[in-house]
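Pasting as-is:
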Amino acid sequence: MKSVVTSINLEQDADVSHTRRTARLIAKVAGAPARDQIRFATAVSEISRNALQYAKGGVTEFAFDRSANITRLMARVQDKGNGITAVETMLRGRHQSHTGAGLGLSGSQKLVDDFDLKTGSGGTVVTLGLQLTTTKRPEELAEATASALVQASHGSPMEELAEQNRALRDSLAEQQFLLRELHHRTKNNLAIIQSLAIMQARQATTEETQEALSVLTNRIQAFANAHNFLHRAEDVTQVDLKQHLESLTDRLSSALGDQQLTITCRVDAVPVAFDTATELALIVNELVTNVAKHAMQSGKVRGLVVIEAHQDAGKLHLRIADDGEGLPDAETVLRNSKSLGWRIVEGCVRKLNGTIDVDGSDGLAITLTVPI
Protein backbone atom coordinates (compact mmCIF):
# COMPACT_ATOMS: atom_id res chain seq x y z
CA MET A 1 0.00 0.00 0.00
CA LYS A 2 1.62 3.23 -1.18
CA SER A 3 0.50 6.86 -0.79
CA VAL A 4 2.42 9.57 -2.62
CA VAL A 5 2.91 12.87 -0.74
CA THR A 6 4.68 15.16 -3.18
CA SER A 7 7.43 15.34 -5.81
CA ILE A 8 10.13 17.92 -6.53
CA ASN A 9 11.79 18.58 -9.90
CA LEU A 10 15.58 18.87 -9.62
CA GLU A 11 16.58 21.68 -11.96
CA GLN A 12 18.73 24.02 -9.83
CA ASP A 13 20.62 24.11 -6.51
CA ALA A 14 17.66 25.61 -4.69
CA ASP A 15 15.66 22.47 -5.51
CA VAL A 16 18.16 20.33 -3.59
CA SER A 17 17.80 22.55 -0.52
CA HIS A 18 14.03 22.38 -0.90
CA THR A 19 14.26 18.58 -1.11
CA ARG A 20 16.21 18.41 2.14
CA ARG A 21 13.73 20.64 3.99
CA THR A 22 10.82 18.64 2.62
CA ALA A 23 12.37 15.31 3.60
CA ARG A 24 12.97 16.48 7.13
CA LEU A 25 9.49 17.99 7.55
CA ILE A 26 7.75 14.86 6.26
CA ALA A 27 9.81 12.67 8.60
CA LYS A 28 9.00 14.98 11.50
CA VAL A 29 5.25 14.93 10.86
CA ALA A 30 5.44 11.13 10.56
CA GLY A 31 6.80 10.97 14.11
CA ALA A 32 10.44 10.13 13.38
CA PRO A 33 12.97 11.16 16.08
CA ALA A 34 15.15 14.20 15.33
CA ARG A 35 18.19 12.03 14.63
CA ASP A 36 16.25 9.96 12.09
CA GLN A 37 14.84 13.09 10.47
CA ILE A 38 18.34 14.43 9.91
CA ARG A 39 19.89 11.22 8.60
CA PHE A 40 17.00 10.68 6.16
CA ALA A 41 17.06 14.29 4.94
CA THR A 42 20.84 14.15 4.52
CA ALA A 43 20.72 10.96 2.46
CA VAL A 44 17.91 12.20 0.21
CA SER A 45 19.57 15.56 -0.41
CA GLU A 46 22.90 13.88 -1.22
CA ILE A 47 21.33 11.61 -3.84
CA SER A 48 19.30 14.52 -5.22
CA ARG A 49 22.44 16.64 -5.50
CA ASN A 50 24.18 13.84 -7.40
CA ALA A 51 21.23 13.69 -9.80
CA LEU A 52 21.41 17.42 -10.44
CA GLN A 53 25.19 17.76 -10.74
CA TYR A 54 26.11 14.62 -12.62
CA ALA A 55 22.94 13.36 -14.35
CA LYS A 56 21.23 16.41 -15.87
CA GLY A 57 18.67 16.69 -13.08
CA GLY A 58 15.66 14.55 -12.29
CA VAL A 59 12.79 14.26 -9.83
CA THR A 60 12.48 13.27 -6.16
CA GLU A 61 9.20 11.71 -5.05
CA PHE A 62 8.12 11.20 -1.43
CA ALA A 63 5.60 8.56 -0.39
CA PHE A 64 4.52 6.37 2.50
CA ASP A 65 4.45 2.63 2.09
CA ARG A 66 3.39 -0.26 4.31
CA SER A 67 4.47 -3.86 3.82
CA ALA A 68 5.25 -6.76 6.18
CA ASN A 69 3.57 -4.74 8.97
CA ILE A 70 6.23 -2.02 8.70
CA THR A 71 5.44 1.55 7.65
CA ARG A 72 8.17 3.35 5.75
CA LEU A 73 8.80 6.85 4.51
CA MET A 74 10.18 6.43 1.00
CA ALA A 75 12.09 8.84 -1.24
CA ARG A 76 12.55 7.87 -4.89
CA VAL A 77 15.16 9.87 -6.84
CA GLN A 78 15.15 9.34 -10.61
CA ASP A 79 17.74 11.14 -12.71
CA LYS A 80 18.17 11.84 -16.45
CA GLY A 81 21.68 10.46 -16.82
CA ASN A 82 23.15 7.60 -18.80
CA GLY A 83 23.52 5.23 -15.88
CA ILE A 84 26.34 4.60 -13.40
CA THR A 85 29.27 2.30 -14.00
CA ALA A 86 31.09 0.43 -11.20
CA VAL A 87 28.03 0.72 -8.93
CA GLU A 88 29.08 -2.13 -6.63
CA THR A 89 32.49 -0.57 -6.09
CA MET A 90 30.87 2.76 -5.23
CA LEU A 91 28.47 1.18 -2.74
CA ARG A 92 31.37 -0.50 -0.98
CA GLY A 93 33.05 2.89 -0.63
CA ARG A 94 36.11 1.88 -2.67
CA HIS A 95 35.51 4.06 -5.73
CA GLN A 96 38.05 6.80 -6.45
CA SER A 97 36.42 9.64 -8.41
CA HIS A 98 38.17 12.72 -9.78
CA THR A 99 34.87 14.43 -10.58
CA GLY A 100 32.95 13.59 -7.39
CA ALA A 101 30.30 11.58 -9.22
CA GLY A 102 28.95 8.68 -7.20
CA LEU A 103 30.82 9.53 -4.01
CA GLY A 104 27.58 10.08 -2.05
CA LEU A 105 26.13 6.63 -2.71
CA SER A 106 28.00 4.69 -0.04
CA GLY A 107 27.42 7.29 2.69
CA SER A 108 23.74 7.69 1.85
CA GLN A 109 23.24 3.93 1.91
CA LYS A 110 24.52 3.84 5.50
CA LEU A 111 22.20 6.63 6.63
CA VAL A 112 18.88 4.99 5.73
CA ASP A 113 17.10 1.77 6.72
CA ASP A 114 16.28 0.68 3.16
CA PHE A 115 18.31 1.35 0.03
CA ASP A 116 17.77 0.21 -3.54
CA LEU A 117 19.52 1.29 -6.72
CA LYS A 118 18.70 0.47 -10.32
CA THR A 119 20.77 1.93 -13.12
CA GLY A 120 21.00 1.63 -16.89
CA SER A 121 21.33 3.62 -20.08
CA GLY A 122 17.96 5.27 -19.37
CA GLY A 123 19.10 6.71 -16.04
CA THR A 124 19.36 5.76 -12.37
CA VAL A 125 16.64 5.30 -9.77
CA VAL A 126 17.61 5.34 -6.10
CA THR A 127 14.99 4.46 -3.49
CA LEU A 128 15.66 5.32 0.15
CA GLY A 129 13.51 4.21 3.07
CA LEU A 130 13.11 5.24 6.70
CA GLN A 131 11.27 2.79 8.94
CA LEU A 132 8.63 4.35 11.19
CA THR A 133 7.03 3.15 14.43
CA THR A 134 3.67 4.79 13.76
CA THR A 135 0.44 2.78 13.55
CA LYS A 136 -1.20 5.26 11.17
CA ARG A 137 -2.07 4.16 7.67
CA PRO A 138 0.00 5.52 4.74
CA GLU A 139 -2.92 7.58 3.42
CA GLU A 140 -3.38 9.22 6.83
CA LEU A 141 0.29 10.10 6.98
CA ALA A 142 0.26 11.40 3.42
CA GLU A 143 -2.70 13.68 4.17
CA ALA A 144 -1.12 15.02 7.37
CA THR A 145 2.24 15.72 5.76
CA ALA A 146 0.64 17.33 2.69
CA SER A 147 -1.14 19.78 5.01
CA ALA A 148 2.10 20.47 6.88
CA LEU A 149 3.91 21.17 3.62
CA VAL A 150 1.23 23.66 2.54
CA GLN A 151 1.46 25.41 5.89
CA ALA A 152 5.27 25.46 5.78
CA SER A 153 5.21 27.09 2.34
CA HIS A 154 3.71 30.20 3.96
CA GLY A 155 6.25 30.28 6.79
CA SER A 156 9.41 32.33 7.20
CA PRO A 157 12.61 30.81 5.75
CA MET A 158 14.56 32.23 8.72
CA GLU A 159 12.24 30.52 11.21
CA GLU A 160 12.60 27.26 9.32
CA LEU A 161 16.40 27.58 9.34
CA ALA A 162 16.40 28.33 13.06
CA GLU A 163 14.24 25.25 13.70
CA GLN A 164 16.64 23.06 11.72
CA ASN A 165 19.61 24.47 13.66
CA ARG A 166 17.87 23.72 16.96
CA ALA A 167 17.20 20.16 15.84
CA LEU A 168 20.84 19.73 14.80
CA ARG A 169 22.07 21.05 18.17
CA ASP A 170 19.71 18.74 20.07
CA SER A 171 20.77 15.76 17.96
CA LEU A 172 24.46 16.58 18.44
CA ALA A 173 24.04 16.89 22.21
CA GLU A 174 22.29 13.52 22.29
CA GLN A 175 25.03 11.90 20.22
CA GLN A 176 27.72 13.32 22.51
CA PHE A 177 25.91 12.01 25.59
CA LEU A 178 25.61 8.55 24.05
CA LEU A 179 29.28 8.53 23.04
CA ARG A 180 30.36 9.56 26.53
CA GLU A 181 28.22 6.80 28.01
CA LEU A 182 29.71 4.31 25.52
CA HIS A 183 33.27 5.28 26.45
CA HIS A 184 32.38 5.14 30.17
CA ARG A 185 30.94 1.63 29.91
CA THR A 186 33.79 0.40 27.74
CA LYS A 187 36.31 1.76 30.24
CA ASN A 188 34.49 -0.02 33.09
CA ASN A 189 34.37 -3.31 31.16
CA LEU A 190 38.09 -3.09 30.39
CA ALA A 191 38.77 -2.38 34.08
CA ILE A 192 36.90 -5.57 35.01
CA ILE A 193 38.92 -7.60 32.50
CA GLN A 194 42.12 -6.03 33.79
CA SER A 195 41.20 -6.87 37.40
CA LEU A 196 40.52 -10.49 36.43
CA ALA A 197 43.93 -10.71 34.76
CA ILE A 198 45.62 -9.26 37.87
CA MET A 199 43.82 -11.75 40.12
CA GLN A 200 44.85 -14.59 37.84
CA ALA A 201 48.48 -13.37 37.89
CA ARG A 202 48.51 -13.48 41.68
CA GLN A 203 47.40 -17.09 41.62
CA ALA A 204 49.86 -18.12 38.91
CA THR A 205 52.56 -20.53 40.07
CA THR A 206 55.19 -19.76 37.42
CA GLU A 207 57.09 -16.56 36.79
CA GLU A 208 56.50 -16.86 33.05
CA THR A 209 52.71 -16.88 33.51
CA GLN A 210 52.86 -13.93 35.90
CA GLU A 211 54.93 -11.94 33.42
CA ALA A 212 52.56 -12.75 30.52
CA LEU A 213 49.52 -11.64 32.53
CA SER A 214 51.32 -8.48 33.63
CA VAL A 215 52.04 -7.60 29.99
CA LEU A 216 48.39 -8.27 29.16
CA THR A 217 47.12 -5.90 31.86
CA ASN A 218 49.36 -3.12 30.50
CA ARG A 219 47.95 -3.66 27.01
CA ILE A 220 44.41 -3.48 28.34
CA GLN A 221 45.30 -0.22 30.12
CA ALA A 222 46.60 1.25 26.85
CA PHE A 223 43.10 0.81 25.40
CA ALA A 224 41.22 1.91 28.52
CA ASN A 225 43.20 5.13 28.83
CA ALA A 226 41.72 6.70 25.69
CA HIS A 227 38.17 5.73 26.72
CA ASN A 228 38.77 7.38 30.09
CA PHE A 229 39.80 10.68 28.50
CA LEU A 230 36.92 10.75 26.02
CA HIS A 231 34.42 10.02 28.79
CA ARG A 232 35.48 13.28 30.46
CA ALA A 233 36.33 15.40 27.42
CA GLU A 234 34.19 18.15 25.90
CA ASP A 235 34.98 16.85 22.41
CA VAL A 236 34.14 13.14 22.38
CA THR A 237 35.82 12.56 19.01
CA GLN A 238 39.39 13.63 19.81
CA VAL A 239 42.04 12.93 22.44
CA ASP A 240 44.79 15.27 23.63
CA LEU A 241 47.90 13.21 22.83
CA LYS A 242 50.02 14.94 25.49
CA GLN A 243 47.61 14.13 28.32
CA HIS A 244 46.96 10.66 26.92
CA LEU A 245 50.60 9.56 26.73
CA GLU A 246 51.61 11.27 29.98
CA SER A 247 48.84 9.42 31.80
CA LEU A 248 49.82 6.14 30.18
CA THR A 249 53.53 6.52 30.96
CA ASP A 250 52.77 7.47 34.58
CA ARG A 251 50.92 4.17 34.95
CA LEU A 252 53.74 2.31 33.20
CA SER A 253 56.31 3.91 35.52
CA SER A 254 54.36 2.67 38.52
CA ALA A 255 53.86 -0.79 37.04
CA LEU A 256 57.53 -1.15 36.05
CA GLY A 257 58.96 0.53 39.13
CA ASP A 258 60.95 -2.53 40.19
CA GLN A 259 63.07 -2.18 37.09
CA GLN A 260 64.07 1.38 38.03
CA LEU A 261 62.86 2.77 34.69
CA THR A 262 62.68 6.52 34.16
CA ILE A 263 60.26 7.67 31.43
CA THR A 264 60.49 11.22 30.12
CA CYS A 265 57.60 12.56 28.03
CA ARG A 266 58.12 15.51 25.67
CA VAL A 267 54.85 15.41 23.76
CA ASP A 268 53.08 18.39 22.20
CA ALA A 269 49.37 18.92 22.86
CA VAL A 270 48.18 17.49 19.54
CA PRO A 271 44.49 16.53 19.15
CA VAL A 272 44.18 13.10 17.51
CA ALA A 273 41.24 10.86 16.63
CA PHE A 274 40.24 8.13 19.06
CA ASP A 275 41.43 5.29 16.82
CA THR A 276 44.80 7.00 16.37
CA ALA A 277 45.12 7.56 20.13
CA THR A 278 44.52 3.91 20.99
CA GLU A 279 46.97 2.62 18.36
CA LEU A 280 49.70 5.05 19.48
CA ALA A 281 49.14 4.13 23.13
CA LEU A 282 49.52 0.45 22.32
CA ILE A 283 52.74 1.18 20.40
CA VAL A 284 54.20 3.18 23.30
CA ASN A 285 53.16 0.48 25.76
CA GLU A 286 54.90 -2.26 23.75
CA LEU A 287 58.12 -0.33 23.20
CA VAL A 288 58.45 0.90 26.79
CA THR A 289 57.69 -2.57 28.15
CA ASN A 290 60.35 -3.97 25.82
CA VAL A 291 62.96 -1.54 27.19
CA ALA A 292 62.15 -2.58 30.77
CA LYS A 293 62.35 -6.25 29.84
CA HIS A 294 65.77 -5.99 28.21
CA ALA A 295 67.12 -3.68 30.92
CA MET A 296 66.19 -6.31 33.51
CA GLN A 297 67.71 -9.13 31.45
CA SER A 298 71.00 -7.23 31.03
CA GLY A 299 71.19 -6.49 34.75
CA LYS A 300 71.15 -2.73 34.20
CA VAL A 301 70.52 -0.77 37.40
CA ARG A 302 68.58 2.06 35.80
CA GLY A 303 67.05 2.60 32.37
CA LEU A 304 65.86 5.75 30.59
CA VAL A 305 63.18 6.10 27.93
CA VAL A 306 62.47 9.40 26.19
CA ILE A 307 59.16 9.81 24.34
CA GLU A 308 58.85 12.78 21.98
CA ALA A 309 55.99 13.75 19.68
CA HIS A 310 55.22 16.77 17.54
CA GLN A 311 53.06 17.67 14.58
CA ASP A 312 54.50 18.97 11.33
CA ALA A 313 52.89 19.47 7.89
CA GLY A 314 49.88 17.31 8.64
CA LYS A 315 51.95 14.46 10.07
CA LEU A 316 52.64 13.29 13.59
CA HIS A 317 56.22 12.33 14.43
CA LEU A 318 56.55 10.05 17.47
CA ARG A 319 59.99 8.96 18.73
CA ILE A 320 60.63 6.44 21.50
CA ALA A 321 64.32 6.13 22.42
CA ASP A 322 66.21 4.35 25.23
CA ASP A 323 69.75 4.55 26.61
CA GLY A 324 70.50 0.86 26.25
CA GLU A 325 73.34 -0.89 24.46
CA GLY A 326 71.75 -0.46 21.06
CA LEU A 327 71.14 -3.09 18.41
CA PRO A 328 73.43 -3.66 15.40
CA ASP A 329 71.50 -3.88 12.13
CA ALA A 330 68.39 -3.09 14.17
CA GLU A 331 65.98 -2.81 11.24
CA THR A 332 66.78 -6.29 9.92
CA VAL A 333 66.75 -7.87 13.37
CA LEU A 334 63.34 -6.40 14.25
CA ARG A 335 61.87 -7.18 10.84
CA ASN A 336 62.78 -10.84 11.30
CA SER A 337 61.75 -10.88 14.94
CA LYS A 338 59.02 -13.27 16.06
CA SER A 339 58.24 -11.11 19.09
CA LEU A 340 54.52 -10.55 19.62
CA GLY A 341 55.21 -7.03 20.86
CA TRP A 342 57.00 -6.02 17.65
CA ARG A 343 54.27 -7.60 15.52
CA ILE A 344 51.73 -5.52 17.45
CA VAL A 345 53.78 -2.37 16.78
CA GLU A 346 53.99 -3.10 13.06
CA GLY A 347 50.28 -3.91 12.90
CA CYS A 348 49.34 -0.64 14.61
CA VAL A 349 51.54 1.38 12.26
CA ARG A 350 49.95 -0.29 9.23
CA LYS A 351 46.48 0.59 10.53
CA LEU A 352 47.57 4.22 10.82
CA ASN A 353 49.13 4.22 7.31
CA GLY A 354 52.40 5.25 8.95
CA THR A 355 56.08 4.45 8.56
CA ILE A 356 58.74 3.16 10.98
CA ASP A 357 62.41 4.22 11.14
CA VAL A 358 64.76 2.25 13.40
CA ASP A 359 68.16 3.36 14.72
CA GLY A 360 70.14 1.04 16.97
CA SER A 361 73.51 2.85 16.91
CA ASP A 362 73.16 4.65 20.28
CA GLY A 363 70.53 2.84 22.27
CA LEU A 364 67.42 1.89 20.33
CA ALA A 365 65.33 4.68 18.78
CA ILE A 366 62.03 4.02 17.00
CA THR A 367 60.55 6.91 15.01
CA LEU A 368 57.00 6.72 13.69
CA THR A 369 55.51 9.09 11.12
CA VAL A 370 51.72 9.04 10.95
CA PRO A 371 49.37 11.20 8.84
CA ILE A 372 46.74 13.02 10.92
